Amino acid sequence: MKTITAVALNPAIDRTLLVPGFTAGATNRVAAVRMDPGGKGINVARVARALGAPVQVLGFLGEENADLILRSLTQEQVAHRFLMVPGETRVNLKIIEPATGQLTELNESGFTVSEQRVQELVALVEQLLPETAVLVLAGSLPAGVPVTVYRDLIALARRAGVPTILDTDGEPMRAALAAHPTLIKPNLAETERLLGRRLKTPDAVVQGARQLLAEGPEVVVVSSGADGAALVTGRQSWWATPPDIRPGSTVGAGDSMVAGFAVALSRGLSLPDALRLATAAGTATAGLDGTQVCTGGAVEAVLPRVRIAEWNPAEGGEAK
User: Fold this and answer.
1) Which of 24, 84, 103, 236 would you call most buried, defined as having the most Cβ atoms within 10 angstroms of its Cβ?
2) What are phi and psi of 319, to 5 degrees?
């Protein structure tokens, strides 16, 4: 059986602090501490595994503090193949004020990767493509990795007939669009940065997704948090509306959506059903505190409460 392959070039260790009454510039008391493996590619792999899909994750890890990530992935039965690089994997500090749910993030930039290690990573991805059902490229790039790396990996996957999902920001995303990824999933803020304008309504979001579609991807998904998500192809558009939930932390919600799409593509689901599964996964994670990601059972509970409607801005934005 083929597997979902997630590429995690810039993983993280997420250190979450619950701090009642957190005030910047003051002395604060920490009520609880939690450590989780993090970074987009790793989160995607963990959620895909929770949804019952065969998955492997590969990428770089700092050799000085790799144990926590490797141990956690093994415990969660996520297959992994990492290339070690000098230095430490970045530690991202998440400060949560529990009464308001307000999140303050301090994210480190991470290690530096040599050109030789980048070449070894590209060769490893190419080696694993014959056993890959869907290739997921997600997250920022550490220093030393060229902004064209996702473009090059998508080109390799296309030649091998493997669908790709891309979730990154800025120049790496812009550089990769012309390589024709199967699906991209920027969030609303990332989409606005790519287009250079605000998207204030669902109609504007769908129109913006159509503009990105013209640059190369086959499917564009724009996630807008609790307001839902748009999925746009060359011929049709849909809008997903998630159910109301008790808000937890948004950390990992977008990654959970990507995992949902990867699982759906690997199972041959239709695009509306893929959007429903992805939205349910993102919603289930958004209801959790800190950097936890959803379980398969939580996603199943949310799934029937997600509403999917065809959406056509040219007809006034009415859901049909």
Assistant:
1) 103
2) -75, 130
DSSP the chain: --EEEEEESS-EEEEEEE-TT--TTS-----EEEEEEESHHHHHHHHHHHTT--EEEEEEEETTS-HHHHHHHHHTT-EEEEEEESS--EEEEEEEETTTTEEEEE-----B--HHHHHHHHHHHHHHGGGEEEEEEES---BTS-TTHHHHHHHHHHHHT--EEEE--HHHHHHHHTT--SEE--BHHHHHHHHTS---SHHHHHHHHHHHHTTS-SEEEEE-GGG-EEEE-SS-EEEEEPPP------TTHHHHHHHHHHHHHHTT--HHHHHHHHHHHHHHHHTSSTT----HHHHHHHGGG-EEEEB-GGGTS-B-
Sign of CA dihedral 203, 222, 259, 261: positive
Supply the pLDDT for residue 319.
Answer: 43
Residue 152: HSE in the Cβ half-sphere, 13 Å Cα cutoff: 12
Q: Return the ∠ at Cα 181 (arms to 177 and 182), rounded to 5°.
A: 140
Other C-beta atoms lying within 10 Å of the C-beta of residue 66? 18
Residue written as token pair 């958004």: 286
As averages over each run of 10 residues, the pLDDT of the chain (320 residues) reads 96 93 96 91 96 98 96 95 96 89 86 98 98 97 97 98 97 96 97 96 95 97 95 96 84 93 98 98 88 90 96 58
Q: Which of 40, 38, 20, 39 is nearest to 30 (CA)?
A: 20
Cα–Cα nearest to 285, from 1, 27, 21, 50: 50
Q: Give the distance, in angstroms, between the CA of residue 137 and the centroid of all CA atoms in the same chain.
A: 9
CA-nearest of 238, 234, 236, 192 to 213 is 234
pTM higher than 0.90 for the full model? yes
What is the separation, in whole angstroms, between the first and last Cα of the chain?
38
Catalytic residues: 255
Record the tokens describing residue 178, joined without a space.
């012309």
